[in-house]
Amino acid sequence: MLLGQVFERFIKESPVSVMVRGLLEKALCPQILDELFERSAKTQYTRELLFSTVVNLMSLVVCGVHPSVHAAHQASVEKIGVSVTSVYNKINGIEPSTSGELVREVAGQMEATIRHLNATMPDLLPGYRVKIIDGNAIAASEHRLKELRQINSAPLPG
Asked: Does residue 135 lie within any of the structural domains?
């Protein structure tokens, strides 16, 4: 195996990170993501930019590899093959039904793994399916302090 010794070192020193990477690669498989997009998108379509590419870019931002979508795009512009404007247009056009289907698909895969490992959490309210919804509705009058508006790491209002 190419880089076998390096991989073995990671397995010994950080087995959880290796397992999580494997699970994420399985759950976010490009072929599965693109099929999911094809069956759930109603108005959007695929020309050059695949849904799986957008998910990959977003995951790089969410996981802190790049600070923004633009930075993630710049880091792999040749591989992506479209302009950053096209990427933003694709992101802005992703329908809620597609996002919901993505969550259902990944959650279903992870649920099967969790059940197989017998690692389920006890019911919050036995006999009921409990969903936790978290949201913020910040009033229009709430803004960052003037001194903190230019600092990206400054706390948000609310």
From this structure: no
Residue 18 CB burial class (10 angstroms; 0-12, 13-18, ≥19): middle
- Residue 107 dihedral angles phi and psi, to the nearest 5°: -60, -40
Instruction: Give the pLDDT confidence of 103-139 residue by residue, as tens digits.
Output: 999 999 889 888 888 888 888 899 998 888 876 666 6
pTM reported for the whole predicted model: 0.69
Token output for 146: 């003037």
Q: Can you read off the two tokens belonging to residue 40?
A: 């759930």
Domains in the chain: how many in total? 1
Structure tokens at 144: 């960052």
Structure confidence by residue, pLDDT tens digits, 11-43: 888 888 888 888 888 888 999 999 999 999 888
Element containing residue 102 per DSSP (H, E): helix 96-116
Q: Does any domain span residue 139?
A: no
Please indicate, yes or no, if residue 65 is contained in any of the structural domains: yes
H-helix or E-strand containing 97?
Answer: helix 96-116
Q: Is residue 140 part of a domain?
A: no
List the domain range (segments joined by +) for residue 35: 4-125
